[in-house]
Structures are given as structure tokens and as C-alpha cells.
């Protein structure tokens, strides 16, 4: 069983918190400390971005983070270096989130081998359609890397079945139309979507829900609706970009993640 799946199995009735940070934002040293803050705050899985110049699935916050990271000279190998160093200190599973060209440019086999050697546990590639995952999925399986596929509000029941069948680690449900970004509240349609997706994934693969989740009550709401994990990213990226002194920013992120993690616990459990 993969490290990512083992997290879901070991949580019992509690939910899983997946926390995102952009590698290299605003620089490599700071972003590594941000990942440390996510882990200290209780994130069960870390989603770490490799910056790309055309991040089509990302909203303004993560797009800006990618620009800052690229402007600092961050390369894919630099982000994998962060993974390697974090893994020497922590057992937290790490999933890389990036775009297909980042893998295609050096060659799929080479990139996946380097990712595995660094300690990466899975990959999330928003612009890789299910119909074109053949070669990638075979190589990912060879290197024991989870392939986390994405489902959208427009995904048909038939397509959902295919995504459930081919995704490993967990299935990432995009909870709303559009791009990433923190929202002040979750609408009823979002929770209905989570319930529907939960029926399709239950007993087959864990369901992670992202896009728009920024508050502990959001985390609790999607878990109560049937998700196995809540994915939080843009609000963390916004904290990195806040302009606060670094140590204060890191303390704030750790405390924020701790509050989100607390919301994953069932009320009758400590």
C-alpha cells in the first residue's frame, strides 16, 4: 500500500488534511520552511507545487506564487531537493502538483525516476487528460508513484467511474467550476457535488476535495458531506505573500494549519 493510501487507512473516522505550498516561493529556503510549518501544524499530506509558466488550473494567488518562484530561478530539481530534505526529517507523504510539460521536457522516465529518488509519493497533473495517461501511468506504476486524477463538477457518471478506476492514492475533486482560490463560503451546490462524488468513490478510493476551501468550517462541511480529505492551498499561499516578517508568517501558517487539522477530527474524538 502506498504512503498516501496508508494515511487514509490509518485515520480511522477522522478526515485527512492535505496542505499545499508552492516550491520556491518566494525562495527555496523560505518555501522549505513553509513545508516544515505545514507538517508541524498537522498536515497529513503535503501537496508541493513545481512552478510552471502557464498554470491553467490555478487562480490568481497560485499563479502569482508561480511567478515569484520562477523569478527566483526555481527549477524542478530544486523543488525535488526540498522533498528530499523534508523526507529525511519527516514521514509525511508528499504529492507533487505541476503541469505535464514539466515532466515531458526532460522525459517522463527521467523525471519520474528523479521524483521517486527524492521521496515523492504521488503526482497531480491537472492538464493530463485521462485519455492520455497510458504511458505516464505505466511509468508511474513502475516507480510506485500514485497517479492522482482530477474530477470536475461537469464530470459525467461514466467518466467518474473511469477516473475512480484509474486514479491511485486518492481522487481529487475540483469542488467548483473555475480556478483555484480561497472563498469565504461553500455553496449548497458544492456540498451536493461532494455527496455525489462520495457515492461514486466510497469503498473504492479516497476522495479529496479542493478549490475554495479556506476555513475550518469548510473542512468540516466537505468531510461531513462525504469527502475523505480536504485540500487547502490558496489561503496558505496568500499567507506566504502577506509581507509579514518570515518568522511571524511561518508561525501564522503553522497555527492556521493546526486549526484546519482540528476540524478534521470527529467531535467525539480528541
Main traits of this protein?
12 helices; 270 residues; 9-stranded parallel β-sheet; alpha/beta; 9 strands
Walk me through what this model shows.
The chain is α/β, with parallel strands linked by helices. The protein has one domain (14-262): Alpha-Beta Barrel (TIM Barrel). Helices cover 47% and strands 13% of the residues. It contains 12 helices and 9 strands. It has a 9-stranded parallel β-sheet with strand order 5-4-3-2-1-9-8-7-6. Helix 7 links the parallel strand 4 (122-124) and strand 5 (146-148). 47% of the residues are buried. Mean pLDDT is 92; it is low at 178-184.
Compose a concise summary of this entry.
By secondary structure, the protein is of the alpha/beta class. It has a single domain, classed as TIM Barrel (Alpha-Beta Barrel). The protein has helices at residues 3-10, 28-41, 60-71, 76-87, 100-104, 108-118, 134-142, 157-166, 188-201, 216-224, 234-240, 246-262, and strands at residues 16-22, 45-49, 94-97, 122-124, 146-148, 150-151, 171-174, 207-210, 229-232.
Amino acid at each position: 500500500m502506498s504512503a498516501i493510501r496508508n494515511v487514509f487507512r490509518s485515520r480511522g473516522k477522522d478526515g485527512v488534511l492535505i496542505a499545499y505550498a508552492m516550491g520556491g516561493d518566494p525562495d527555496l529556503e523560505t518555501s522549505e520552511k513553509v513545508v516544515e510549518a505545514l507538517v508541524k501544524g498537522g498536515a497529513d499530506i503535503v501537496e508541493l507545487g513545481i512552478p510552471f509558466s502557464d498554470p491553467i488550473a490555478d487562480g490568481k494567488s497560485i499563479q502569482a506564487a508561480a511567478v515569484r518562484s520562477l523569478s527566483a530561478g526555481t527549477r524542478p530539481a530544486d523543488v525535488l531537493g526540498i522533498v528530499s530534505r523534508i523526507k529525511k526529517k519527516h514521514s509525511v507523504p508528499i504529492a507533487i502538483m505541476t503541469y505535464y510539460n514539466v515532466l515531458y521536457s526532460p522525459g517522463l522516465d527521467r523525471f519520474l525516476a528523479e521524483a521517486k529518488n527524492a521521496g515523492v509519493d504521488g503526482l497531480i497533473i491537472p492538464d493530463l487528460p485521462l485519455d492520455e495517461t497510458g504511458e505516464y501511468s505505466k511509468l508511474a506504476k513502475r516507480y510506485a508513484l500514485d497517479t492522482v486524477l482530477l474530477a470536475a463538477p461537469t464530470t459525467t457518471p461514466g467518466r467518474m467511474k473511469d477516473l475512480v478506476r484509474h486514479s491511485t492514492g486518492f481522487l481529487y475533486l475540483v469542488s467548483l467550476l473555475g480556478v483555484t482560490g480561497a472563498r469565504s463560503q461553500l455553496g449548497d451546490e458544492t456540498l451536493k457535488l461532494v455527496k455525489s462524488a462520495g457515492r461514486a468513490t466510497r469503498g473504492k478510493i479516497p476522495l479529496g476535495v479542493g478549490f475554495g476551501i479556506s476555513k475550518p468550517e469548510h473542512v468540516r462541511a466537505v468531510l461531513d458531506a462525504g469527502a475523505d480529505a480536504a485540500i487547502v492551498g490558496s489561503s496558505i499561499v496568500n499567507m506566504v505573500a502577506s509581507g509579514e516578517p518570515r518568522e511571524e508568517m511561518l508561525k501564522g501558517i503553522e497555527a492556521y494549519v493546526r486549526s484546519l487539522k482540528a476540524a478534521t477530527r470527529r467531535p467525539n474524538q480528541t
